[in-house]
Design goal:
- The complex is a heterodimer of chains A (342) and B (617).
- Chain A is built from eleven helices and twelve strands.
- With 342 residues, chain A is α/β, with parallel strands linked by helices.
- An eight-stranded mixed sheet of chain A has the order 2-1-3-4-6-5-11-7, with helices on both faces. Chain A has a three-stranded antiparallel sheet with strand order 8-9-10.
- In chain A, helix 5 runs antiparallel to helix 9.
- Chain A starts with 24 loop residues before the first helix and ends with a strand.
- In chain B, helix 2 links the parallel strand 5 and strand 6.
- The termini of chain B are far apart.
- Classes of the chains: A alpha/beta (342), B alpha/beta (617).
- Chains A and B meet through strand 1, strand 2, helix 2, helix 4 and helix 10 of A and helix 1, strand 9, helix 10, helix 12 and helix 13 of B.
- Strand 2 of chain A pairs parallel with strand 17 of chain B, so a sheet runs across the interface.
Chain lengths: 342, 617
Amino acid sequence: MAENYKYTPQDFKSDQEVKWCPGCGDHAILSAVQRALPEVSNALNYDIERYVFVSGIGCSSRFPYYMKTFGFHGIHGRASAIATGVKVANPKLSVWQITGDGDALAIGGNHFIHAIRRNIDINILLFNNEIYGLTKGQYSPTSKLGAITKTSPFGTVEHPFRPGELVIGAQGKFFARSIDVDVKLTTEIMVEAAKHDGTSVIEILQNCVIYNDKTHSAITDKENREDRTIVIRHGEKMVFGKNRDKGLILSGISLKVVTIGEGGFSMDDILTHDAFAPNPGVHMMLANMEYPEYPVALGVIRNVKDSTYDDNVRDQVLDVMKTAKIKSVDDLLHSGETWEVK
Amino acid sequence: MSKQKQVLELDHVVVRFSGDSGDGMQLTGTLFSDASALFGNSVCTFPDYPSEIRAPQGTVSGVSGFQVSIGTKKVNTPGDYCDVLIAMNPAALRANAKWVKAGGMIIVDADTFNEKGLQRAGFKTDNPIEELKLEDYKVIFADITNLTKESLKDSGLDMKSIVRCKNMFALGMVYYIFDRPLNYTEHYYEVKFKKKPEVIEANKKVLKDGYNYAGNIQAIANTYTIPSSTTIPKGTYRNVNGNTATAWGFIAASEKSGLPLFCGSYPITPATEVLIELAKRKDLGVKTLQAEDEIAGICTSIGAAYAGNFAVTSTSGPGLSLKSEAMGLAVMTELPLVIVNVQRGGPSTGLPTKTEQSDLFQALYGRNGECPMVVIAASTPSNCFDFAFTAGKIAMEHMTPVVLLTDGYIANGTEPWKIPSMKDFPAINPPIVPEGTEGYMPYARDEKRLARSWAFPGKKGLEHRVGGLEKDFIKGSVSHDPINHQKMTDIRAAKVERVKEFIPEQDVFGDKEGDLLVIGWGGTYGHLLTAVQKIREEGKSVSLCHFNYINPLPKNVKEIFGHYKKILVCELNMGQFANYLRMNFQEFNYNQFNKVQGLPFTVVELVDKFNKVLEGK
């Protein structure tokens, strides 16, 4: 594109008909991505050919077909591995992985944690609807204990993963959470994720209108959202509630919800969010907050700088090449012990 | 000292070094092999080691062996049976005595033949020679351990390090027997232990002492010399094993295509050295990614291929099973990718360190759906280079995944290799789409190869989506149209079949017609060739048709087969290639010779089988 071209969401829409169910949370996420990318482009000076969307299998994984960028619809669970290969092959690309709770945390769990451990610079959008949608309603690794689904007619008997805990446990440097219906927040977080060097994981609480409708509604419904979620931003006080009168404090080694002005708590007692803190202690507690004991944390929970896998690979190659004696295959073949037959 | 001893000239000799897996037998064998190659002999080696890194000391399961065959004329196998066996302990003797030629020489470390050692090796009496019926062999009991201790008592090394040098004493003895110069090996010590002068001196001394000891004892009546060859083509040579040659062949294909090499892989015996070798080559810009598992190995490579690298992945049997689904993805997305499978004994974990050819069907068919792929097989350690290069060329120019089959035998085996020059290799021209091309259609094809074109992310105007769902014939968007699926299935098969037009015709060693055509493929080449040469010397009408291109097969196969009275397919599996040929050319009758013992064929058993087939037995 010409210099100074201002991308619009329209530039990122492909000609393919979007085939998700009416009312599916994925529509809103698609819309957020198409709104976020023009902002990313402007902020980082990326042209459209720089973006690659990689997915696995599942409803969410149809996503790349709806983007007018480069895209790769992979196989079940392997999107992290494919995206890693894309990024290492060409570190200039802005690589986005679209995945679901089954794709990333069940069949693809291994690739997911290892991508995070390596800190490869990709952005992972994890659509968490706590159900297998494309196969029509079986429980997933994030389904709540006891959830009744087609393969758990008497309720599940297994404990779910908490994606944030898994990400931080795998030494994740960037973890954020949003909800499908809040396009504005999702957009804001995606821009932050794009700016972050390293693996960024954004968990998006997403509604499956057909097989797990309203699974997140206790916290996402508009009338309760402000009381049951807390949007945290780096450098800002952790305050929430319709009246902005509730906040989080550190009590002993746990977080605690207090009301400002009650029990002797003032704004000064409320924690200020430090997303850049390398110590993951508070981030882990924030990521694990569950309703009703706590508000569910939204926003960028952890955003820590560290070296990235793709940079390290590139730098090591360049470093070795600088002083290399072998500069071609011919050199290589003649290296080491050789002898002449005359 | 040995003036009265005779020096006899031999044109071919086989030596087998064996000991505990911690005794350094692989190194000892390699040094002997290198010294012989540098001396100007033709050399072929076969390492035979257990899958345990350190099995219980002194037991038969922990025995590691290394067989070297050296000759004045071209040597194509490491030899069925050895002329000389070096056994560093009773277990090594027990495990390897059966591989010594009748009446051959056996050198044992007498110091290990004590009650404990014999017991550990499972001998029931204190006379292993009688127990193994070796009375007619020339068994030399040498006090190798004690002589090594004596030799190095003033070296300043601790006792553990001293005893570790005993393999070099044994090597010195072998050097004396076969009249090898010591200077190549001394040079090796100097390079290897550059920072430890005392270790260099100790090794040099013990090698020399072993050499002199062999000259002093009366038990060794003759020494032998294997003259250097005068028929070896002129040029610069080096030793190479199949795994290194494979890795280098990939780098060569990368250089010729101008695209960076990416290898996503997971360690697995006996393929790991391919990854190790590539990991060293950052100087040539090679990117290696040691993945979290086999699946990630291939999937990172597919991602890299999509992004415009020349991508490869290395594995062995069980790993190929894990990669199957992703191989289908590479077929569907029509991306270049080379999957090298260094075959080992199966099924399941099977025999990890032993050789076999039983993954052929898996390479050809082991995927869901109609999923054809190019399959080629290397047949010698050094031609792994050529076929790795060719696999890369086919993958990139035809936009298809290619399976390259090697096996544990050629992967670990070494041979001298006349170093080729890259200027003699062809260019590789992948169908890369130029930036800014208008109206790019991802699945439009060129008529010659039926290959789609390759558009790299990051290039303006080429944004497109690919994936594992069935693709529209031209646009590449998702299509569930029944006719389109048929069309795409047909074209994927036709694309692979079209490779036939770009590979050489099949050749035959021997006569264009005759009584028996021996057929083989892949790593059995050396043994089959030697056996066919041998039986032809007896005047029998036997020829060899050895395959490297498996899918597609060369054009002239049917024409060749029709000129022989009988056909015998020899392979280290239960008949996979024979059945593949039956399917493709039903008009012929195929005799089979199959073996799955984790070992290569022996020339003796092959010649025996040829005779039986010729006689109609």
